[in-house]
Amino acid sequence: MPLTSGWTLRLTGGEVPEGLEALRDQGVPAQVPGCCHGDLLAAGVIEDPYLGRNELDVAWAGRADWRYDAVLPPVPAGFERTDLVFEGLDTVAAVALDGTVLGTTRNMHRTYRFDVTGRAREGAVLSVAFTSAYTEAERLRDLLGERPNAYPEPFNFIRKMASSFGWDWGPTLVTAGIWRPVRLECWNVARLASVRPLVTVADGAGRVEVRLDLERAASGEDRELRASVEVDGRTSTVTIPAGASSAVAVLDVPGVEVWWPRGYGDQPLYGCRVTLTDAGDRARGGDGTELDVWERRIGFRTVEIDRAADGHGTAFTFVVNGTPVFARGVNWIPDDALPARVTPERYRHRLVQAAGAGVNLVRVWGGGLYEDRAFYDTCDELGLLAWQDFLFACAAYPEEQPLRGEVEAEARDNVVRLMPHPSLVLWNGNNENLWGFRDWGWEEELAGDSWGEGYYLGVLPRIVAELDPARLYNAGSPWSGSWDHHPNDPAHGLSHFWEIWNRRDHSGYLDDVPRFAAEFGWQAPPAYATLREALPGEELAPASPGMSHHQKAEDGQGKLDRGLAHHFAAPATFDDWHYLTQLNQARAIATGVAHWRSHWPVCAGTVVWQLNDCWPVTSWAAIDGAGRPKPLYHELRRLYADRLLTLQTRAGARVLAVDNQSGERWEGRARVRRMLPDGTVLAEETVPFAVPSRSVSTVPLPVGVAEITDRHKEFLVADAGDLRDVVLGGADHEFSYPAADLDVEVRPGAGAAGAAGAAGAPDVVEVVVTARTFVRDLLLQADRLAPSAAADLGHVTLLPGESRVITVHGLDPAGLDPAAVRAALFCVNSTQTGAQTGAQTGAQTGVRS
Ligand code: BMA
Prior knowledge:
Helix content is 20%, strand content 31%. The protein has 20 helices and 45 strands. By secondary structure, the protein is an alpha+beta fold. Beta-D-mannopyranose binds next to loops.
C-alpha cells in the first residue's frame, strides 16, 4: 500500500529567511516521493533554483532540518505482519510512528524496513524527521579527521549523492526528503526477503540459479515452504525445510536466445517469476497458499573483459557472447540535481536519445546514484550496456565506522537490486580515487589515514563475488589493473583524459592510443533557448553574471576561450562565441573518438564525458539541462554510427580510416579531393576499400592528394556515400574563408499541415540550404526560432553547389519569418577575420514555400 498522499513538510531547525517562519508550524504540502526543495518550489516559497542566481538564495534550505508528517489511511487488517518500507530516504532521518521512534537512517542509497505490526493503524501519525546532511557530514568529519577532496564540501563523510553538494557542472542543492516510494507491506507466514538470479548461458543452454533469502513471521517459523522459479514456461521447485532462511532453486532453460548489446543482435528478455508458497503440510497448519511473488525480466548473455597483457600493455575489452565489442559510450550523471523529479518517462526519453546517437554503453558515474529500476529496464530493452560505479568520486573516503557499515549495507542492497538486469555488465569501485591517491597529493596529506582503498580492493569486490558472482568487478576508473602501473596509464586498462581540456588543445587526444578511454570531454554552453529560459532578462555575454554562475568549472571560461584560440579568431559577438564554443566541443570529441576508434582493437572503447546535465549549465554534456541536444549530440551520431570515415595520420602521413563496426563487410570507394574554397579540385583520387565486419582499415593516400601545400587556402575532403570528413591544413583562423554564400529555402515539411494534401503534424519545417561557396560547419540553431523547435542535423560542411535539407520539428511553418531562419544559421566563414560576414550569407536567399 503506497503512502503517497496527505504529507506535510515543516521546518524543524536551522535559520529561515525573514517572512518564512510559517514553515515551522503550518508547513507546506509535501510530495512523496519528493524532496524539500521541490515542495518549497511548488508552494511558491522559493524561486526556481535553476534560474539566474537563485541557487544562492536557497542555500539555507540545505542547512535546515525538516519533518514530513502524514496521517495513516485505513491499514489492511488480518495480517500477521505489517512492514513500513522506505525505498529511499535522503538522508539523515528519524522515523517515528505516533511519536515512537522506529529507527534512524543515514544513507540515501539504502532501503529501510520497519516492523510496524500492531502500531500502524488508521489515524496514526507517521513522521520522518530529517537533520541537515551537513550536520551529520561535518560531525563525522570532526570525528574522523579531514580527508582530501576535489571539492570544498563534506560529501565524503555521508552516504548521499555526492554531486548534490555541488560539482563542476552542478549546483549545490543539499536537499532532504522521502525521495523514493514508501509503502506499507502486509504479509503472513513468510516473505521473499531477497531474490538473486544468477543467469548464465553456454551454447544456447540457459541456466537460472535463484538464491533466495526468506523472512518468516511467527506462524511461518516451523513451516515447510516451497519456492518455484518459472522462466519461459519451465518451472523448477525447491522445498525449504522448516526454520531455513535461504534456498537455491536452479532452472535449466534450453534453447534460449541470447541478449546482445544494440548493433550486435536483439535483446530478448524473459520473464522470471519466483513464487513462495506454503508447502501445504496440513499437520503444521500449511495450506499451499501463495505467500509472495517476485517478478523481473532477465536476459541470457555472457560478458567477459579481456584484460590480458599484450604487446601494447593491458587490454580492457568487453567481450559479449564471445564477440569483442568496441564500446561507444557516454558517462551518465544524475539527470536532475533534485533526483526525485526524474520520472520513468524521463529516464526512457534520455536513454532513447543516447541510443539514437549510436551509444551502446552508459556508465553511471560514482558521484551520482544507483539509479531507478526504470533506468536499467530501459537499458535492457535498448541493448545499452550499463556500467555502474559504486558511489565514490573524487575524494578520499574514510573507512571507519559508521561509514564502513553503511558502505557495506548500501553495496549489498544495490547489488541485489540491480543484478537481474542483463544490461548491467560491470561493477566499478569508484571514480578517480585511486588516481587521486597517487597523483593529487593525497598520499602525503593522508599520512596513513584510511581513504577508501579498503573498499575498492577489499569490501566491494568481496560483496560482488559473494552476491553477484556472474558479474565483473573493476576497482576504479581510471585503473590499470594493479599498483604495478600508474592508475591512469593509457597503456593499461581504463584511462581518463583531462589534461587536454584543462591545459591543452584537443589535438592532444592524438598523442595517445589508450586501451579504453573512460572519460574525456570538452565544455560548451547549452542551447540558446536553454540559456534564455535560465537567465531571464540577462543580456547574455560569455562572462555575464548568470553565465558565470551557470559555469561551475574552475576557470571554465578561461579554458573555453583558450580552447577556442587554438583554432579560431576571437569571436566578435556572444552569438559567435556560443556557436564557436559549441563547435569546438563537437570537434574536440570528434578528434578523440575518430582517432581512438581508428585504433580498434587496441583501443576498445570511448566513454564521452558526459551525456546529460542536471540543470542548465555550461558543461561537457551532449544534451543540455533542458533536454536539448547540443551540436555535439549530432556529432556523436556520426562518430558512433557503425560506419565512420575519417582522415587520420599514421607515421606522419595522411591515411583514410575506414571504420566498420557493423556486422557486415563494407566494400566501396572513397573519393578524396584536395580543393580550394571556390570548388577548384587540385587533386582527386578514388580509393577502393574492403573492410571486414567489426574492423578498421587504414588506407594510405597518395601524397599528391593528401598533402596540403597551402594551409591558407586548401582543404581535404573525403566522401563515401553520405559519409564525409573535411580537414584544413592549419587552424581555421589561418584559413582564407570566403564569405558564405548560401541560398536558403524554407518550406512546410512532409506531413505538415500546409504541405500539399497533407493533414496533421503542423509543426514540421524543411530548410533547404544550398551553398555557392565552401561553407564550413553550417548549423541551424532551430531553438532560436521557437523554444520547442529542434533540427535533425548538426554541423554540416558544404562544397559549392551542394544542398542539404534540414528538417525542423516543433516549428509552425505558418508566418515563419525567413529572415529569422537566416539569422539562426551559423557557419565558421562568418566568424573568422577576413571573411565578409553576415549580409552576404543571406544575399541570395530565396524563400519559397
Ligand atoms: C571527471 C569526472 C567528474 C567531473 C569531470 C569534469 O573528474 O569524474 O568528476 O565532473 O571530470 O571535470
